[in-house]
Every structure is written in C-alpha cells, then in structure tokens.
Write a structure and sequence with these properties.
The complex is a heterodimer of chains A (about 450) and B (about 290). With about 450 residues, chain A is an alpha/beta fold. Chain A has 14 helices and 17 strands. In chain A, about 50% of the residues are buried. Chain B folds into 2 domains: about 55 residues, 3-methyladenine DNA Glycosylase II, Chain A, domain 3, CATH 1.10.15; about 170 residues, 2-Layer Sandwich (Alpha-Beta Plaits). Chain B has a two-stranded antiparallel sheet. A two-stranded antiparallel ribbon of chain B has the order 2-3. In chain B, helix 2 crosses helix 3 and helix 2 packs antiparallel against helix 4. The radius of gyration of chain B is 28 Å and the shape is elongated. Classes of the chains: A alpha/beta (about 450), B alpha+beta (about 290).
Chain lengths: ~450, ~290
Amino acid sequence: MLKTFSLGGVHPAENKFSAGKKIEALPIPEQVSVPIAQHIGAPSEPVVSKGDEVKVGQLIAKSSGFVSANIHSPVSGKVFKIDDILDTSGYKRKAIIIKTDGDVWDENIDRSDDLVTDITASSEEIVKKVGEAGIVGLGGATFPAHVKLSVPPGKTCDVLILNGVECEPYLTADHQLMMEKGDEIMVGTQLLMIALKVEKAIIGIENNKPDAIKHMTDLASKYQGITIQPLKVQYPQGGEKQLIDACISRQIPSGKLPIEVGAVVQNVGTTLAVYEAIQKNKPLFERVVTVTGKSVSNPSNFLARVGTPLNQLIDAAGGLPEDTGKIIGGGPMMGKALTSTEVPITKGSSGILIMPEEIAKRGKLEPCIRCSKCVSVCPMGLSPYLLSTVSDKAIWDRAEEEKIMDCIECGSCSFTCPANRPLLDYIRLGKGKVGQIMRSRNK
Amino acid sequence: MNVVLITIISLGVLGALAAIILYFVAQKFKVFEDPRIDQVEEALPAANCGGCGFPGCRAFAEAMVKSDDISDLNCPVGGADTMSAAAAILGKEVSAAAPMVAVVRCNGTCENRPRITQYDGATSCTIASSLYGGDTGCSNGCLGLGECVDACDFNAMYMHEKTGLPVIIEDNCVSCGACVDSCPKNIIELRKKGPKSRRIFVSCINTDKGGTAKKACSAACIGCKKCQKICPFDAITVENNLAYIDYNKCKLCRKCVAECPTNAIHMLNFPPPKPKVEKPAAETAE
C-alpha cells in the first residue's frame, strides 16, 4: 500500500501532455517587464532608475522587510522605465521594464555546467545567501525561502521534505527538472539540510512518475541521509500539510505551520535554485514553465526569463489555438484565468494552461443538494458547503469557529460539487474578511 | 375531603408560593432601565438598518438617552421629523441634518465602456474585484454584478438592463449607507440631496491618466481641470487625474457641467434648458 495523506482528496484527470519533453531554453525576449511584487510579502523597492545599464543577475529591486525578496535582472540592457503594467494579479502594478541588449551576465556567476559538490558554506551563510539570491517557493506559492529556512526560536526542525509531487494536472516542469537536473537537486538538498541543521531528507514523488522515482532513488544512494518516498497519486498531495502527513504521518495542528511538528517543506525547483545560488553564485531570474493544453500543438517545458511576456511562450508552443476559452496561469485546480497575453512571467509562473472553450466554461449554477461530497473531499477536514454559505451571508464569527482560516484553497470542493457551486470563491472571500477581523483584534 | 379539593388547594398553595418567591427575586435582581429608552425607540422607524451607525433601533435609542450631546446622532431613515420627535422626549432639540441620498459615480455603460473580456465566476462584486480589474479597460469602474442592489433593504435600487449600472430610486433611498459599504470599488457615495432634489456630481472615479481613461470609457473624467478653473466657488478639486465636487461648497450653478469635455459631470433634477426664442416666422408648431 503506497503512502498518501489521510483526509479527503480528489483524482482529476492527469493530462500530462508535456511529459517527457526536454526543457527548452527560450530565446531572450526583446523587452522584459519585471514586476516588483512577485512574492508573498511586501513588494520590493527598485534600486535602478530609467536609463541605467544592467547585466544579467544584477540586483534591480531589494527586499523591503523580513518577508520580502530581492529581484535580479533577467536580461542585460537598459532600464526603459518603471511603470504600472497589467500583471498576473489582474490589475496594473509597478514593474521595471528593461530593453534587452545582448546577454551579458554578472561576472561572479559561474555559467559552466559542471556539478559542484564541495560545500564550504555554513548554515547561517547558506540562509543568508538564499535570501540575497531572491529565492522564493517555486511551487507557485512564492514564499521567501530564507524566511522558511530561519527556524524561529523555541522551535526545532528534524526533517526536510522535498516536494517532487507536482500534483496539479497538466504541469510537468518539476518532473523534467528531476530527470535532467537530479544531481544538482541532490546537492541542493544537502545545502538545505545544512541550513536547517537536519540529518534526514525525504523527497516525495507521486507514482505517476516512475522514471523520476527510479532516477532519483539511484542518485540518492550516493548521498547521505536522503531517501525517496513514492506516493499514491492524489490531489492535493503537494500541499505542505498533506505531504508531511503522507511522508512521515505527522499532523499539523489547526492554525499552525509545519515547523510546529519539526518539518520544513521545499519544492524541488526551489532546491535547484538554492544549488545554483550557493554553488554557482546565480540568483533567481529564470524558471521552467510548462505551456500546455488539449489543443496546443507543441506542449513543452520552457526555461524562460522572468518578465518574458506570455505571448512569447505561447508562440513557441505553437501559437494560441482557435478554440481557446481561457488562458490559465498555474494549474487547473489553483490557477487563475488571465486577461491578456502581454502579462509577464514571474517567479511563481509554474505553467500556462490553454483551455478550450467547452471545458473552460463553468457549469450551470444549481442549488446545493446537501450531498456533502465537498466535506468528504476536503483535505483539511472542513465543511466547504457551510463555509461558503456563511461567507456569502457574512456570518463571520461562525466562519471563524468552523476554521475557515485552515482552508488551503486547493479547489477540491469546487471541483467535486455536482451543483457547480463556486464554493472556493466564497470561501476565499470569507478568509479575506475573517483574516482582516483577526488581525485588527490582535492590534 | 375528596381528592379534587386536596389537589386544588395543594397546587394553589404551590402556585402562590412560587409567585411570592418570583416577586421578591424579581425585585431583588431588577435591572433599572431608563423608561425613556422605550419611548425613544417607539419614535424610531424600527427598520433596524444600521444606517445610524448602531446595531439596530434599540441601540440607537440607548445611545440617545445615555449621551449628553446628541448633535452627532442622526437617523437617516426617519430624517428630521423623527429626530425632533425623539429629541423632544429627552427635552432636547436637534438641528435638522441635510437629507442625503446615494449617488452612483460611474457612467461606464455598455455603450460608453466596451467589454473586453468575459467574466465567468461567482456573481459577487467583491469576489470579481479580488480576481481582476473587471471586464473592461477601466479597473475602477462598476462591475455590474449587483452586490449593492442586494444590500439595499429599502427597494431603492435596481440594475438597469441596458446600461449595466445600478440605478437609485430617489424616493425610496433613506441614505442608510448599506450600498456604499457593499461596493468594493467605492463607487457609491452619500451626497446632499440638494434643494428640490437637485445635485451635481462627477460620475467617474477613475484615477488613470486621461489618455488611458478615455480609451477605456468615453464618459471618463480625464483630469483636464477645466471644471476646477471655471468653478466660481472653489468647490472642485482634481487629484490623481480625477475631479471631485465638494457638495457643501457647490451652489449648483452648473458652469462645470457645460465645461466638461467628456460630459463626466452630471446634474440631476434640473429643469430642461429653455428653448431659444426664435423669430415668429421660423417657429413651427409641434
């Protein structure tokens, strides 16, 4: 019996059209628009101005607080302007727009492909360098990595868990990274183990990636303390709390973080970025993005620089199909529909999913039939039909009582509802409001 | 003595005993409540809408009785008549607050403001605005999903089929402010109803630069400041590419309405302009 998480879960069709497609580096765009808000926390402050010349990897915006991140230039060229542009938030927000000129990298970056296995940095140095390199969670949540690696006083960490699960349908970027950059990910894992001062690391990989499980297991035998945990395919296994439950059977108490049970989770893509930052002095300015969809002629995994407009990736995947209904940034479960192909790629862009009209359109809304399917699939053990209704009726104290803040917004409830009710939309509304009330109470 | 008589007497004694105990307990634990609170509550409209800022008419009545200075308190639903009646119970006087009315500050109709995307989500303005700036080029404009209409307890609003914008039914509006709070874009404002219900306001809250605003909506305020320059009463300020008319300073002269190049300034309930007097030979009977 393969391990998996204990509560709820759904099984959406996998549709991994881009599986096995080798990572392809896209040509450098003529112009990039780098948003200053690409991470959880405060937006960064630009440190360049109009007319400045920049090199690849140069710092262009600095972290503006503890929970914030540095941003580095993805191209070499001249800063054209700092202006508000439409980004993945659906609104116009500030971005640094750079016109590309050549591909000149910062001299400190080691561009060679050699695997660097010697680790000389100390735990504190690693955490500091991860912060300086602007590394954020590349699974899509974009939480600043150096914050997660800073264990708060009073808490201890005894295990590192890597997320190689990629539970969202359609997305294959992490799968390819494990196949092509497995050794680098292993060294990255060692770096994270030193940073967290742990001796044990477990890499969770779902059973639908047997080649990755075999490859990573072979590699892991060469490294001390790293084991691979194959997992049963189920969504949302990649959620931190679900992954910790699946790999080591620890339950995180309501309202608390994974560090409470002594675990820290990082995505394999983030781990690779940590390897590149520490061993190659390369900050985070590019990532692998899966471009896919039923009607897409060339579904692929592209290595794209941050700030590249969406249309460049879509063109490289064969262009926008005739029957396009929605363009989704992220996966089909938690991603968001975008309203323009000029929107730039950010650190959190795990995929671009082009959905044909017939499957993109939401089903006809019907009244709740009290079937409680939503309750049985919720991985956090909540009652979505109830949380959605109290959010709609603005009964905030009841929402808080029923633990609305524990919702991880995975979308399993909306996915399952036979009446096509927009459960997650209302729950998100409720979370926003209840969060606001809770914060004003603590002031 | 027969059973019936015993039953009647024993139950009667128990009942009387309970009554006596209850009487003394009630006296001992009596909560003193100012009887004027009940009287003031009687004078209020009993709509319990929250427009006064208190949770219900009873709470407002309590506030009135317990405050020394009632000049800040106002029941917008009942208006001046209710306030003077309630104040009279307390032996006080209140100056009549100017009647207010809700105003929708957006004229981005389907015709003026073309739709460039299609929204396929939950029909809630708050939810839509958390996802993106709306289905037009103006991210400040009305989303047309009717959360304000749902919030109104007084049947004073409806969504206009053709324009896609909410309409305020003046006679029913009691300026409780529920619609103002419900709009995630802060489009609705409570403004002075004005003499003969006449008022002038800028029907736009877009803060984009003029060119961007005009491209998205033909009725947008472009921040050109012509209105500010022509106003003889200094009632207009232009900030962040948007004009705003202070309803306390505005004297309803209508100079700004004529001056605005995009017709973004609206005037309500004014008589139509008199037709120019023609030479008798050119007049046609209608």
